[in-house]
Amino acid sequence: MSASGPLRGRVRVPGDKSISHRALLFGAIAEGLTTIEGLLPAEDPLSTAACLRAMGVTVSPIVAGEPVTVQGVGLDGFLEPDDILNCGNSGTTMRLMLGLLAGRDGRHFVLSGDGSLRNRPMRRVGEPLARMGARIQGRSGGNLAPLAVQGQSLHGVTIRTPVASAQVKSAILLAALTAAGPTTVIEPQQSRDHSERMLRAFGADLVVAGPGGTEVTVTPGASLRGQSVIVPGDISSAAFWLVAAATIPGSELIVENVGLNPSRTGILDVLEQMGARIKVINPRDVAGEPVGDLEVSHGPLQAFSIDEPMMPRLVDEIPVLAVAACLAEGTSRVRGAAELRVKETDRLAVMARQLQAMGASLTEYPDGLDIQGGASLKGAAVDSETDHRVAMSLAVAAQLASGTTTLARPEAAAVSYPGFYDDLTRLLG
Asked: Of 198, 230, 262, which residue is a domain's last?
């Protein structure tokens, strides 16, 4: 692919991946029917739906543009599956399933996934669940899948998590729904709060307290009721268009129907810090989640600095922000991002490797990057290394580079944004 001019027009990104997973899972353990509009029809939510079907939940076919229905089986209605539950490439599926299944007393489950997922750390979920009485075994002392879950009767506890992680927090909250007594999760900073918002909407007895919403308590006993859920566009997918339009001369875009949950909008704060021309238009509230359209155009950018307290709000956007940093004036600094080393790939190492191949000047640290701006990116042979966010970030970089860029394994983008390249071609005219 080669640079081919400005991006112009309107684009609607796929449904939010985090909310899509949770709508399926919470609909499954609710009583009655849940209808989901705008669910992301990509590989990760499909993995969640397949696991639920294997345990006796009726989930309608997931087709782009069609509502999805989930016939709930209640809090304790999962059947023991006949086979291994395949989570594909989805860490969210595996980690939330661990919380969901740990309290299914007397039933046995085995969770596995693809090669990438089988090498991602799961003890961060297994350890707090073990404190509630869960029995989870796997490779490397229970850190790596395949993971065997022997359902137990769980008890409520207070758990302080060492890092802010929505997946860890959500797994504990799901386990807490059937534990004996209340469970409280206390985070160092608030991670994304989709689970809290949606569990309350489904009827859970859940209280958020503490500075900045860092303490969440679930008291078991309430029944969940099926809901109508409208999934907003994923701001992590919108990030590629925001950076592309802010960096490619002559670009003017409107990204429609983007979820603007404050626990997810770190990307907007960083782009504002860079001086990017972005504004929110038509703000509104949809099913408890703030939503708006984002208008973005090209302009000069300054370097940014990101530290650990901000990281939970933009951890998935660091790869594409690294691309933006290459074009900014000054040296951009990312710290507190060690979590990126245990995503689908080691995203710090992969982005450093690939951007250096394109002529970027950067330094890698254990928990971040320094990226010198003002570089002229050059077309090169680059590789997504099977990571969806890397694939799309490099596609944006290719539009900013002189010469032709060849991207290996571009199909990784389908994990979260199946139509990404079609949208890119259309917006380039």
From this structure: 230
Distance from C-alpha of 107 to C-alpha of 103, rounded to nearest angstrom: 9
Amino acid 286: pLDDT: 76
- Which residue range is the domain that position 145 belongs to? 17-230
Segment 206-210 shows an average pLDDT of 96
Last residue of a domain, one of 230, 263, 278: 230
Question: What is the CATH classification number for the domain harbouring 314?
Answer: 3.65.10.10
Chain centroid to Cα 288, Å, comes to 19
Instruction: For residue 216, give Cα distances in angstroms to 77, 160, 169, 210, 313.
Output: 25, 11, 9, 8, 18
Query: Catalytic positions, please?
Result: 316
> Does residue 214 share a domain with residue 185?
yes
Residue 287 pLDDT > 80: no
**Mean pLDDT over all residues of the chain?**
96
Give the pLDDT mean for 67-85. 97
H/E stretch holding 274 reads none
- Burial label, 101 (beta-carbon count in 10 A; 0-12, 13-18, 19+): buried
pTM of the model: 0.88
**Residue 156 phi, psi (nearest 5):** -75, 145
Are 280 and 307 contacting, i.e. CB atoms less than 8 angstroms apart?
A: no
% of the chain with per-residue pLDDT over 90: 94
**What's the number of domains the chain is made of?**
2
**pLDDT at site 289:** 85
CA-CA distance, 179 to 156, in Å (whole number)?
6
Q: What confidence category does residue 1 fall into, taking pLDDT thresholds of 50, 70 and 90?
A: confident
104's CB contacts (< 8 A; 6+ apart) are 76, 78, 149, 151
Q: Are residues 128 and 188 in the same domain?
A: yes
Task: Let me know whether 256 and 393 are in one domain.
Answer: yes
Give the residue from 266, 334, 327, 281 showing the smallest Cα distance to 301.
Answer: 327
Whether residues 133 and 243 share a domain: the answer is no
The verdict on residue 3 lying in a domain is: no
Confidence of residue 264 (pLDDT cuts 50, 70, 90): very high
Question: Quick one: the chain helix, strand, coil %, rounded to 5?
Answer: 35, 25, 35
